[in-house]
Design goal:
It is built from eight helices and eleven strands. It is of the alpha/beta class. Strand 8 and strand 9 form a beta hairpin. Helix 3 crosses helix 5.
Length: about 250
């Protein structure tokens, strides 16, 4: 089984233009992500998908494979598919390009279900809920079945409890937004226009459920930290300093 990790890195992010190149503890954000992904023991290759020459230059300086993609592609998943459609691989990991604390171990846990179930379409990660997560509209929740497969994703408190709103319902996790796809399902996923439920919730993984895919949810106990705004840079630097990542 050949497994490829792709890091979409678009230069012109609406909220934070040039984000992949912003310095975090003296290194570009994207470099942190590449180095974290390279810690994986199961990825056969790490590729950056970008639309900008400066990002391409950074990748070449790090001896990282880079593919130039159309800047008008609508999503990171589409950039991932454009990168691997002609590549020889079985499983593709969409690695978020704005999460500098990513660990290779996270990736290895994510792709393990494909080793046990070659017919699996997709996998993602989820962690136990903490106080405030269920009610938070910025936190995507996953309801899972007894096999550990996603039933539904929402930013709303699901499943709703009419008896005990303070109780964390069994079978519900906070979603951590990293995905692995079988190559064949990624092609199907990107060939399907956005669906009504996906657009309503603003969660593209609902397209996979609409298509009838099984999404295995790997339970983990860590937190992911993304860089969405310039203010997030200081937060990440504080975390890195506390964890001695820069040593």
């Amino acid at each position: 089984m050949r497994i490829v990790g792709v890091i979409p890195a678009r230069y012109g992010a609406t909220r934070f233009p040039g984000k992949p190149l912003v310095k975090i503890a003296e290194k570009p954000l994207l470099q942190w992500v590449i180095e974290g992904a390279r810690q994986s023991k199961k990825l056969d290759e790490v590729i950056v998908a970008t639309d900008h020459s400066e990002i391409q230059e950074l990748c070449r300086g790090l001896s990282c494979e880079v593919v130039m993609t159309d800047p008008d592609l609508p999503s990171g998943s589409d950039r991932v598919w454009a990168t691997v459609k002609d590549a020889s691989c079985d499983v593709v990991v969409n690695i978020q390009g704005d999460e500098p604390l990513i660990s290779g171990d996270w990736i290895d846990q994510l792709v393990t279900p494909f080793e046990n179930d070659p017919a699996l379409a997709m996998a993602t990660l989820g962690r136990p809920l903490k106080p405030g997560d269920l009610e938070s509209s910025t936190t995507a929740k996953i309801v899972i079945n007894k096999k550990g497969e996603a039933i539904y994703f929402s930013r709303f408190p699901i499943p709703y409890s009419r008896n005990d709103a303070e109780h964390f319902p069994e079978g519900c996790l906070k979603h951590i937004g990293m995905y692995a796809f079988s190559k064949s399902f990624l092609k199907e996923f990107c060939g399907q226009p956005p669906t009504v439920i996906e657009q309503a919730e603003g969660l593209e993984q609902l397209r996979a459920l609409y298509l009838g895919a099984r999404i295995h949810v790997v339970p983990v106990n860590y937190e992911s930290w993304g860089v969405d705004t310039p203010e997030d840079v200081k937060k990440i630097e504080s975390i890195l300093k506390g964890a001695s990542y820069g040593s």
